[in-house]
Amino acid sequence: MKKDSKIIEAILTRNVSNVIERESLTRKLYSGKRLRVKLGADPTAPDLHLGHAVLLWKLREFQEAGHKIVFIIGDFTAAVGDPSGRSQARPVLSLKEIASNAKTYFNQVGKILDMRKIEVHRNSEWLSKLRLRDWLKLLQLFTVSRILEREDFQKRLKGNQEVWLHEVMYPLLQAYDSVAVRADVELGAGDQLFNLLTGRALQEKMGRPPQDVLVTDYVVGLDGAKKMSKSVSNYIGIAEKPSMMFGKAMSLPDELIVPYFRLTTRRGEDEIKVFERRLSAGDNPRDVKLDLAFDITALYHGPKAALRARAEFIKVFSKKEIPSSMGEQQIAEGSYEAAALLLTLGLAKSRSEARRLIEQGGAEAIPLRGLARKLEDPREMLSIADRMVIRVGKTRFIRLRAASRR
Predict the structure, then answer these.
(1) Which among 67, 176, 391, 405 would be 20 to 30 A from 285, CA to CA?
(2) DSSP, residue by residue, 248-274
(3) What are the chain's domains?
(4) For the chain, what is the radius of gyration of the CA atoms?
(5) How far apart are CA 235 and CA 239, in angstroms?
(6) Which pLDDT belongs to residue 204?
């Protein structure tokens, strides 16, 4: 194992908000022992995003130092639903949904970690085999009052909201994963701290050495307010197309530029300070953001794809040209009410949304030849021409293929 002080310091500090116990983990890292470093992920959605990637890059640091990464797909716990950070119970997923989501994880995790060197488990391997007698013995190790101390449950109880029994059991199920894989270290985000500490406590209660816990910083989403999450659509997925990834990064609020360099790229602190100085000296934040968007896109798709995405972004958003490629949709030729057209093309989820997009100036029609025309009245009639482009917002374009009516 690598015992270089710079490597160990980076593991303990880079994008890390908390270590329990720091002294213990530091001692283990310098001991030369190959540690078993655990990360669990419930496949509740098919895509991983840059918030998840902070944890994965931390695992990469452990992996490059020679430690064993143990990645757990929580196919059993996903059917229960993690209550962390939730104001109400998660919807129960079907086994088919869980299996489908889990399939996508391996390709995405493989963008960051060397999958050939990872120990992968599904926690149904052991949790599905627990008999009622075993489960009752496990329950005897914890009190209801201790579990209900967690902040999520306290908020619900104070607000007269339900806390369901299966949610109370969740921390114990996840904790048992640490026992099953003999984890020396477990990683997680801040909202997972209760679950991580429960794993540590269960190991001790069962006579095992307690795992150390490393908590990473969280990524604020594209809205600049909430933690990055698919549920609030403020995320950048690590498997998204380069053009989409680049465009989303460019939509970041300016105040997130430096934090994103720190959390979502592999730039060193000295390089990040150069970007800070550029912004302080009055450089256009857009120019610095172009570097950030390039770094993020290159990290997951390579520099060539990132360069193409950059050129496409400048073409569409700076030069106001249309993208080189976009989705196409066949539609009968003729005239359509503007709001109805957006709804037909799937560019709006409802007639009221279509009306709002048009009234706010967020839609335009771009003929094959001639000038783009902003749609202003939801009820105006628009004549469809072959290869006309309809744009909604900054990133959604559809080319129409007009078909003659029969």
Answers:
(1) 391
(2) HHHTS-GGGHHHHHHHHS---HHHHHH
(3) 5-216 (3.40.50.620), 240-318 (1.10.240.10), 327-403 (3.10.290.10)
(4) 25
(5) 12
(6) 93
